[in-house]
Design a protein that fits this description.
The complex is a heterodimer of chains A (309) and B (502). With 309 residues, chain A is mostly helical. Chain A has two domains: 2-73, no CATH class; 87-307, MetI-like (MetI-like fold). Chain A has 14 helices and no strands. The mean pLDDT of chain A is 87. Chain B has helices at residues 2-26, 54-63, 112-124, 157-160, 171-177, 226-234, 249-253, 283-292, 295-302, 331-341, 356-370, 383-392, 413-416, 430-441, 445-461, and strands spanning 33-38, 68-70, 77-79, 82-87, 93-98, 135-142, 145-150, 189-195, 199-204, 217-222, 240-242, 258-263, 267-273, 307-309, 348-353, 375-380, 397-403, 465-471, 473-478, 481-482, 498-499. In chain B, strands 8-9-10-1-11-19-12 form a seven-stranded mixed β-sheet, with helices on both faces. Chain B has a six-stranded mixed β-sheet with strand order 14-18-13-17-15-16. The mean pLDDT of chain B is 92. The chains are: A mainly alpha (309), B alpha+beta (502). At the A-B interface, helix 2, helix 3, helix 5, helix 7 and helix 12 of A face helix 6 and helix 12 of B.
């Protein structure tokens, strides 16, 4: 098992190098560079050009990339062109709030989708099934920022203890988590439903029912446990996505997360910040997926056997 | 005897109680904290590192002080850290006499050496050096006197010194703490906390050399989404909402607990045309476009009631402004000018836009210009992409806005001189280049005013820009908030803010 984990972590290295390469070159395609941003609004064309030369933006992109990788291996993701602050430190200062929102969001999603998915599966074809599926679809179709604003108007402006924005206290997490979670719920609901349907049609379920096991136990103890693998997969990928930042939700709720940091940095052409943040995000998402894969091993002994082969 | 004593005691008690009641009634209660909602995160709080970001400058007004101060209400320059100053007869040497007993937040007294240190740092800063570009020498004469020499006469220099980014900070603090030592200023508030992406806290400086601030704590809270920021004001989570979006104004004006402050702005929305390419290199073509534009319609669509038409390239609220005559809508004249220029059948042109407001303006312009035979393609670009196009001159036309944050020169050199940093129309006119230098060096104020009038009229006549609108500046506040110096250039001075609560 440990060997499996070790192998997975080693595989991360080429992935990260690939990501840094891709991001660096994509940033270079965007018109403009950070020189105009750094020099400020009142700088003359000459001053911007001089700064550009000084910061090496006139060198070929390969030279610039080489320089970046050189500095990366010496130990460090560098400093922001704009704020001159350490990239890693800046990312880490925004990370806790991002993780908080991602975890809260997935919790909301699971609270909605597991019951809804099971209900749909148990009452397949009925009105309950139809309504559940439509509800899930609604959650997916509603634009995040629109839902977020609606929630602020309907709830935050009426309920005093829920703030309209910011990340001050736990109450501030509620509306952003709902916004993120409802979007994720749709796919998890559908996966739960189809996985449950699959399992419910199995022989051992019929056996359990024939044995006289209580219906609730059939669902929770026998069916759901076996249906978990696809549900865990999809939950893991959704969680991974929000660990990279939920930009729209963060903007609407003034949530100080990584998403906003990355988007703002792209707008400022702050290549070290963007590259560094995306490398770190890739690491985080990869580790999340690895954790999900390890959880499989404990849910399904067959999979564990595969890993330890 | 006992009763007499008891009576005396009761009387004293009544007297003391009534005094307490009276003094309570006299004592005004103020809110301990004022929270200001702003729309952008602040990348750095080091004045010379900051790229003149508006939000950062508003923080600096609270935490730092400058040699001279531009009063937003009178548009006149006042003494600040410099009590008085003399300018040599040749206009090149400024001698500033500094206030004594000014304390920095680290307890050190401000001396001329700190002024020299701060200004020298600004001179080499990649973001701020343009403000002190003409400075050749800074000499400390004694602890409270400092001399600054310029390479040529430039009256707007005093305006440059009012900029929050050339604030004076403690040399000792920078030597001890590095770059972040620049945050140690002499203003009425101390920067005590910065949570990236969330807020900045300032605490009252008890040893402030001027009148101690009323409010104990000021918090700048970052809420990027316009609608959310206004809702935070409605919910009472912030006391001041910076620049509420026009579509949200009714939520403020309809709310009995809130007030909408409005004042004339200094930002001009205009159409930039690349004068280095055809057909915009032809003056008559530009003038024809200027005569076809319906400014009122543009304003109605893009700004509602929140802007005034721009007559010329210099907004009325900029210091030393005097009125000039611009073009008004006259389709016959426009068509005649086009014909004279040789474009009787019109032509096709692209207007680049980067925001919703600009897109709205461009769409009205599209309709206006159609009436004289010009086909307009409105093209949306990402903000920095369009900016680069206008800098490199690869654009045709673009809907732009330009804000003049300081003195009169700001309305001319940057946007219209051939080496100007905001020359979006790629103007290359030697007369303008000479005139801005002449007006910038004119020491007599009355002459200076007439020179700028001449410059303004010339540029407006030549239609290097088609000026369209000057939006008002707005601030949403909780009723009872006072002590703010609201500025037309939207860098409001919150250092004196307070709110009466009792």
């Amino acid at each position: 098992m440990l060997r499996y984990i070790g192998k997975r972590i080693l595989m991360l290295i080429p992935v990260l190098i690939g990501v840094s390469f891709l991001v660096f070159f994509l940033m270079s395609f965007a018109k403009g560079d950070a020189a105009a941003q750094i020099a400020g609004q009142d700088a003359t064309v000459e001053e911007i050009e001089a700064l550009r030369e000084q910061m090496g933006f006139n060198d070929s992109i390969f030279v610039q990339y080489g320089r970046y990788m050189g500095q990366l291996f010496k130990g460090g993701l560098g400093t922001s062109y704009i704020s001159k602050r350490d990239v890693l430190k800046t990312y880490l200062s925004f990370l806790p709030k991002t993780v908080e929102l991602a975890l809260a969001g997935i919790l909301v999603a699971l609270l909605i989708s597991i019951p809804l998915g099971i209900l749909s599966a148990l009452h397949r074809g009925s009105i309950v099934d139809g309504v559940s599926m439509v509800t899930a679809l609604l959650g997916l179709s509603m634009p995040n920022f629109w839902l977020g604003l609606l929630l602020i108007i309907w709830i935050a402006l009426k309920v005093r203890w829920i703030p309209t924005s910011g990340a001050g206290n736990l109450a501030a997490l509620i509306l952003p988590a709902i916004t993120v979670g409802t979007g994720q719920a749709a796919i998890i609901t559908r996966t739960t439903r189809s996985s449950m349907l699959d399992v419910l049609s199995q022989d051992y379920i019929r056996t359990a029912k024939a044995k006289g096991v209580m219906p609730r136990q059939v669902v929770w103890k026998h069916a759901l446990k076996n249906a978990l693998v696809p549900i865990i997969t999809v939950t893991g990928t959704q969680l991974g996505a929000t660990l990279g930042g939920a930009v729209l939700t963060e903007s609407v709720f003034a949530w100080p997360g990584v998403g906003r940091l990355i988007v703002d940095s792209i707008g400022q052409r702050d290549t070290p910040m963007v590259t560094g943040c995306l490398i770190l995000t890739t690491m985080l998402v990869s580790i999340t997926i690895l954790v999900v894969d390890i959880i499989y091993a404990y849910v399904d002994p067959k999979i564990k056997a595969m890993y330890t082969k | 005897m006992k009763t007499k004593r008891a009576l005396a005691l009761v009387l004293v008690l009544v007297l003391v109680l009534s005094m307490a009641v009276v003094s309570q009634a006299d004592e005004t209660k103020y809110a301990d904290t004022i929270t200001i909602g702003i729309g952008k995160d602040i990348s750095t709080l080091d004045p010379t590192l900051d790229a003149s970001q508006i939000e950062a400058q508003m923080v600096f007004y609270c935490s730092h002080e400058t040699l001279t101060y531009l009063n937003p209400e009178t548009h006149k320059i006042q003494p600040d850290l410099a009590e008085s100053w003399e300018i040599s007869p040749d206009g090149l040497v400024y001698t500033f006499h500094l206030k004594k007993g000014v304390k920095f937040h680290n307890g050190e007294e401000m001396k001329a050496s700190d002024v020299k240190f701060s200004l020298e740092r600004a001179r080499v800063s990649s973001t701020q050096k343009s403000r002190l570009a003409l400075v050749t020498d800074i000499t400390v004469v004694d602890d409270y006197t400092i001399q600054i020499t310029l390479s040529k006469v430039f009256l707007d220099f005093l305006y440059n010194l009012t900029q929050p980014n050339v604030s004076i900070f403690s040399e000792k603090a920078v030597n001890e703490m590095g770059d972040d030592g620049e945050q140690i200023g002499s203003g009425p508030y101390v920067i005590t906390e910065k949570v990236a992406g969330d807020h900045i806290t300032l605490t009252r400086f008890e040893d402030y050399s001027g009148e101690k601030a009323i409010t104990k704590t000021i918090i700048f809270k970052i809420i990027p989404e316009d609608a959310t920021r206004v809702m935070a004001l409605e919910a009472g989570e912030i006391d001041i909402c910076y620049s509420p979006a026009y579509v949200d104004h009714t939520y403020i004006t309809d709310n009995k607990d809130l007030e909408l402050i409005s004042l004339p702005g200094t930002t001009t929305y205009y159409l930039a045309m690349n004068t280095q390419i055809e057909p915009f290199n032809n003056e008559k073509v530009r003038q024809a476009i200027a005569c076809a534009v319906n400014k009122e319609d543009c304003i109605a669509v893009a700004f509602g009631t929140t802007a005034i038409p721009a007559e010329s390239v210099m907004p009325p609220s900029v210091p030393l402004y005097s009125e000039v005559k611009g073009y008004s809508r006259d389709l016959d004249k426009a068509k005649a000018l086009l014909k004279e220029a040789g474009y009787e059948n019109g032509f096709t042109m692209e207007i680049g836009v980067a925001t919703d407001v600009h897109q709205n303006i461009a769409q009205v312009l599209q309709q206006n210009l159609k009436e004289i035979g010009i086909t307009v393609v409105v093209q949306r670009y990402e903000a920095n992409t369009l900016k680069d196009m206008t800098v490199e001159g690869t654009h045709q036309a673009a809907s732009q806005n330009y804000g003049n944050g300081s003195g009169p020169d700001g309305s001319f050199t940057a946007p219209f001189s051939s080496t100007g940093s905001s020359n979006r129309s790629k103007v290359n006119d030697p007369w303008i280049d000479e005139m801005v230098v002449k007006a910038g060096a004119e020491q007599d104020e009355a002459t200076r005013i007439s020179l700028y009038k001449e410059l303004n009229q010339y540029i407006t006549d030549k239609a290097y820009w088609v000026p369209i609108a000057i939006p008002n500046a707005y601030v949403g506040i909780r009723k009872g908030v006072a002590g703010v110096l609201y500025a037309s250039n939207i860098r409001h001075d919150f250092s004196g803010v307070y709110r009466i609560v009792g």
